[in-house]
Specification:
The longest helix has about 40 residues. This protein has a domain of about 270 residues: Glycoside hydrolase, family 65, N-terminal domain (Beta-galactosidase, Chain A, domain 5), CATH 2.70.98.40. The chain is globular, with a radius of gyration of 27 Å. With about 800 residues, the chain is of the alpha+beta class. The strands form 7 sheets. Strands 1, 2, 8, 9, 10, 11, 13, 14, 15, 16 and 19 form an 11-stranded antiparallel sheet that branches. The protein has a 5-stranded antiparallel sheet with strand order 7-6-12-18-17, with no helix packed on it. Strands 20-27-28-29-32 form a 5-stranded antiparallel sheet. The chain binds beta-D-glucopyranose (2 copies). The site of one beta-D-glucopyranose has 12 residues, from loops.
């Protein structure tokens, strides 16, 4: 059971909690309350072990292949969170005895996990427990843990094992070679692991302090080692009302770290670094480290994003904060060789790989709110160019064909080949996305265009951006297929965003995005030719720019762009979609679990039905509306409405990426009630009360979508070809919305209500923007009354 109203006073709408312990539903709180800082992610499994737990610690970028036939994945590194506790010799577990006042909660404001309860042992001894944990945003290598135990009734003997456990795996797949283990001074423990194939060293060091009634215990622990494991056992006697307090601090270092200050890498250096950092942290102790972490959250995140919502449903504000929390902990802001995984760092799902989820659903938040992180994420894609070129060559194309799934940049395409069971054949289904879901190359080009328009970061374009846009256009030139009969270029045999349609011809989303990608290349080429030919010259070493330009020009105008049907303005999602059989989708539209259609049909059968997994055409309308090619796209309100209602009825939202786009479109066509209800559904993908939503990990794109539906949907913010446009459509449940965006290098704060609008330009550099079709200028503060301008 998840609860949203536990936070009181200045913690109101800052706390997500679980108020009932259910040993069969552990995944939910483990994932949605996971802790992290972009460098690492620690799933919030309980200290004491349970059968169905998933205990994960991931360090971003440490990809490894577990075997010959596997794709690379983010390995689950050694665990430091497990504590095996015994009370008078009996194992402590919430599955025995009686538990009262159970509460597990994530304090979003301070990014701290807390668990507390009163437990009566099977022998009738009553103890009070409290656990706390954080993964520091101040020192990215640091994990802090704390345990308090108080015996309320009887003298008890408590003993616990605590250490570093590398007997971990990814659902059985073992990624590491067994490394050295060591205990220093009966206190600090260290374990080294090395990934089998990628040969990355991971060094974990932990230290403990034990207090009874605030006095440090002098009891020496027992020292233990086993295969892949090293730990200490403490034995403590507690009298009634004695209070035991245990602090455990851990540092995590890997040979992939980009902040190592020694010139030549050796494992010994890394071990020393990990230990010396640990000892410095130990001098400060849990509380001071926690204070620094808390301040970092306050300064870097909450004070910087300044988000406020006054809604009749307080949950909405909590959901937005939850979204900012997760966007922060999933993003490797520290290292531009790393991307964001589809599940963040919260679980094994999708193996830590990055998809188009980043560019289309997550990146917009950073582009508008924290451009430095957006730049880092796009630079990651630049580093993936070599892999993209290799993929193009291997498939007989030129240019850069971005991998559908990406890991460490040189790995290139890492999509697995086989997936879930086919209910008809009983065999695993072949996964086609790595071969034919190709729109990602154009999605990345779009994201760079959006980043440049919002930030005006010319440096980034000169070094990275132009090259990606030109070389993806080169790929498309080689990918287009001439259709003699139609005298047009077609793109056959693809998967569009709607993955329920495989091997389709002319997926409208793909064709239009390709058209945009090539037009963009032409546009930038022509501007550079006039203004900065030296940038073009530099690129000549990579490919023949003049030839490329003439090919784009020759082909772009002949790309087939599916048009709305004359009778009802519906744009065909692909060549056959509108001719497919229609079935009653009510059962699946009302489903409690996702993808129930697979219980009745296999992929081949789904392919032959007018049913859509996720936003496809609608996403295209939304994206291209922001570009300079909008004239080439049928974007009238009538077309938007026709397509919205046609495809919304056919869309099962079986991918969590879908709801936020439909919500934004619903706002755009003025159906604010529907927009709000789709927004609420999007927030519930992870945060909702259902306990089985997030076992494999949180849904990073959906979490980015919560912010998008708010700022692009309800606040109606758009950057249309470099111009800032705002058309607010606040839902009736919201009284007021405040947020900050960075517009061309300058932070601006917007505050909206149903009748008023105010904008504050932080650096007092004059900006121009359009609000409800009126143009304004502002270099300080401007307050506008809607009734006045609309009347
Ligand atoms: C997703 C694909 C993905 C595949 C393998 C499927 O569930 O829909 O996009 O490539 O899993 O990771
Ligand atoms: C969606 C894809 C998405 C992937 C990873 C799939 O279910 O259909 O669009 O990229 O999940 O989140």
């Amino acid at each position: 059971m998840i609860s949203y109203s536990r936070g009181k006073g200045n913690l109101e709408n800052w706390v997500v909690s679980e108020e009932l312990f259910q040993p069969d539903s552990l995944g939910k709180s483990e994932a949605i309350m996971y802790l992290g800082n972009g460098y690492m992610g620690l799933r919030s499994a309980a200290e004491e072990p349970y059968m169905k737990e998933v205990r994960n610690l991931f360090a971003n970028g440490t990809f490894n292949k577990a075997g010959e036939n596997e794709v690379t994945e983010l390995p689950n590194i050694a665990d430091v969170t497990r504590l095996d506790i015994r009370i008078d010799g009996d194992r402590f577990s919430l599955e025995f005895g009686k538990t009262k006042e159970y509460i597990k909660q994530l304090n979003i404001k301070t990014a701290e996990l807390m668990r507390s309860f009163v437990w009566t042992s099977p022998k009738g001894k009553v103890l009070q427990f409290e656990f706390k944990r954080f993964v520091s945003l101040d020192n990215l290598h640091l994990i802090g843990m704390k345990m308090f135990v108080k015996s309320l009734t009887d003298p008890v003997h408590i003993s616990f094992d605590t250490g570093i456990d590398a007997q971990m795996s990814n659902s059985g797949a073992q990624h590491f070679l067994e490394g050295e283990r060591r205990i220093f001074d009966k206190k600090d423990i260290q374990l080294i692991q090395t990934t089998r194939e990628s040969k990355i060293d991971v060094v974990i060091s932990s230290t403990h302090k034990v207090f009874v009634n605030d006095v440090e215990s002098i009891n020496e622990p027992e020292m233990n080692m086993a295969r892949r494991k090293v730990w200490l056992t403490y034995n403590i006697k507690l009298e009634p009302n004695d209070r035991l307090e245990v602090e455990k601090l851990t540092t995590v270092y890997t040979s992939r770290d980009n902040d190592l200050d020694f010139t030549e890498y050796t494992t010994r250096h890394l071990r020393e670094k990990s230990l010396s950092d640990l000892r410095n942290c130990a001098i400060k102790g849990y509380e001071s480290n926690f204070q620094l972490h808390k301040e970092a959250w306050n300064n870097l995140i909450w004070s910087s994003y300044e988000l406020e919502i006054n809604s009749e449903n307080p949950y909405d504000l909590l959901a937005l904060r939850f979204s900012l929390y997760h966007l922060t902990i999933m993003a490797p802001a520290h290292d531009d060789r790393m991307g964001i995984a589809a599940k963040g760092l919260s679980g094994e799902g999708y193996k830590g790989h990055s998809f188009w989820d980043t560019e289309i659903f997550i990146l917009p938040f950073f582009t508008f709110s924290n451009p430095a992180v957006a730049k880092s994420l796009l630079t990651y894609r630049y580093f993936c160019l070599e892999g993209a070129r290799k993929k193009a060559r291997e498939n007989g194309f030129s240019g850069a064909m971005f991998p559908w799934e990406s890991a460490w940049p040189p790995d290139g395409e890492v999509t697995p080949n086989l997936g879930d069971i086919d209910i008809v054949t009983g065999e695993p289904t072949k996964i086609w996305s790595g071969f034919i879901e190709q729109h990602i190359s154009a999605d990345i080009a779009f994201a760079i265009y959006q980043y440049f328009n919002v930030t005006a970061d010319q440096e980034f374009m000169n070094h990275y951006g132009y090259e990606v846009i030109f070389d993806t256009a080169n790929f498309w030139v080689s990918r287009l297929e001439w259709n003699e009969g139609k005298q047009a270029y077609h793109i056959n045999n693809v998967i569009g965003p709607d993955e329920y349609k495989e091997h389709v011809n002319n997926n409208a989303f793909t064709n239009y995005m390709v058209f945009f990608n090539m037009k963009l290349a032409i546009r930038y080429y022509e501007t550079l030719m006039k203004e900065k030919p030296s940038i073009l010259k530099k690129l000549i070493t990579k490919f023949d720019m003049n030839k490329a330009y003439s090919l784009w020009k020759a082909k772009v105008g002949k790309i087939y762009l599916p048009q709305p049907r004359a009778e009802d303005f519906v744009i065909p999602q692909d060549d056959t979609y509108l001719t497919l059989k229609e079935i009653d989708l009510t059962k699946y539209k009302n489903q409690k679990k996702l993808r129930t259609i697979y219980r009745d049909y296999n992929s081949e059968q789904i392919n032959a039905i007018q049913v859509t997994k996720q936003a496809d055409i609608l996403l295209m309308l939304y994206l291209l509306n922001q570009t300079f090619i909008s004239e080439a796209v049928p974007l009238s309100n009538a077309v938007k409405e026709a397509n919205f209602y046609y495809y919304e009825r056919k869309t099962l939202h079986d991918s969590s990426l879908s709801l936020s786009t439909h919500s934004i479109l619903a706002s755009e066509i003025g159906d604010t009630d529907l927009a709000y209800s789709l927004f609420r559904k999007a927030t519930e993908v992870d945060l909702g009360p259902r306990m089985d939503t997030s076992d494999e990990g949180i849904h990073a794109a959906s979490i980015g979508g919560i912010w998008k539906a708010t700022v692009f949907g309800f606040a109606g913010v758009r950057v249309v070809d470099g111009k800032l446009r705002i058309n607010p459509k606040l839902p009736k449940q919201w009284r007021h919305l405040k947020f900050k965006i960075h517009w061309q290098g300058q932070p601006i704060t917007l505050v909206l209500s149903h009748t008023t609008f105010s904008i504050k330009v932080e650096n007092k550099k004059k900006i121009e923007f359009e609000l409800n079709n009126h143009i304004y200028e502002c270099d300080d503060v401007l307050n506008i009354d809607f009734e006045y301008i609309n009347g």
